[in-house]
Design a protein that fits this description.
The chain has 15 helices and 21 strands. By secondary structure, the chain is α/β, with parallel strands linked by helices. The relative contact order is 0.09.
Length: 466
Amino acid sequence: MNLKNLHSVFFLGIGGIGMSAIARWFNHIGVPVYGYDKTPSPLTEALEAEGMQISYADDSNNIAEPFKSSGADKLIVWTPAVPQSSELYKYFEANNFDIKKRAAVLGLITRNMESVAIAGTHGKTTTSSMVAHLLKHAGHNTAAFLGGLTQNYKNNLILHDEGSTESPVVVVEADEFDRSFLHLHPDLSIVTSIDPDHLDIYGDTEQLMEGFAAFIRLTHPDGKLIIHQNAYEKIKQKEIGTTPIYQYGLHSGNIHADNIKVGTTSFTFDYVAEDQRIDSLVLEVPGFHNIENALAAVAVAIHYGLSKEAIRAGIATYKGVKRRFEKIYNSDRITYIDDYAHHPEEIKAFLQSVRAMYPEKKITAVFQPHLFTRTRDFASGFSESLSLADEVILLDIYPAREQPIAGITSEMLLPEITSLNKGVVSKENLLNHLHQNVPEVLVTIGAGDIDRLVKPIEKWIRDDKE
């Protein structure tokens, strides 16, 4: 399929972060974009402002004119977040439209471009955006499809210069959900982590490992696999091909950090590899896990010939990704940080870094569990990780694509949380609870609709503290 010959494209679930990046790419190359999503959001509003036509009704009677008949020049891009029982999905299927998953379309877009694919059960969005920024900031012809909105570019799509004589490199966030990453063809691969997740898709941890091994085997044999030490230990017995392997980790590996200095606004470290050292890198997005993400990104930058000066400048100017260790408010009285963490290991890494930054202050964590199955499968891990906070406030589970499971609630996490102050609070009562308990360092954590509380919390802080 020649994507540039398309007459029009319809996105089923256009408001997803990965879907919207591909929609923006088609819009950029001049293909009319239409779409459906369940509810409006700031992201869908932005897409509409860019000229895309979006409907919020799952009703085939109101289908856009170009899709009243099928044809080889029309494409339906679908995400499994929209069920196949959707009326629109059934309409497109019954009328013989070409329906492709988002991942397959991303594979088609990037098939003939040199690509860097970043996979991992956590860390991939930040690492992808770091790689893209280092290359772009240094003037390298770079495109990127990202799973978050970068603070540097205010977008989840970075476009390369089509008029450049330099062949572009495309940076792709490789999503393991639904085995999406198996549609890619990377020249370089990064694997940030392989922790049990998406077991509703894979069935068990062994199948998840097989999925990551299959992704790694897709890497060009003359390329590189840059993999976190912990991930490599979990997968090294699998068949992962012959691509040269470079392991990284905070304190050990072919690539590691040295002279780490923790501040309340930045972390400083040295990049150390077997044949390269770059001293005094200043990362304005804090976190020990973000140092690890930066190690992998710097390794890619070195592969593409960036100088030490360009790398140092790129790291120093990297502003992060929306909802990844995002500092919303900071004063002597209160600090408020928002983070997308939704897996026990992510929460552990996040809270350990917050604790290192504010060792003498009370940390209040507001957490919204994401998915009933994930809460059930990792209940003990969530309780242990959240116990790093002084106070834990749990919101009800965000169901996303799932139906409720009997007995699986936020309350089930409470018994094993060792924090002295803990409880379940409704979203409606959260601000009142915070007002009565006066946090010093407040963090909101989760991948559901907890992000809709960020602005009200920020307004409460400003109204109450200023």
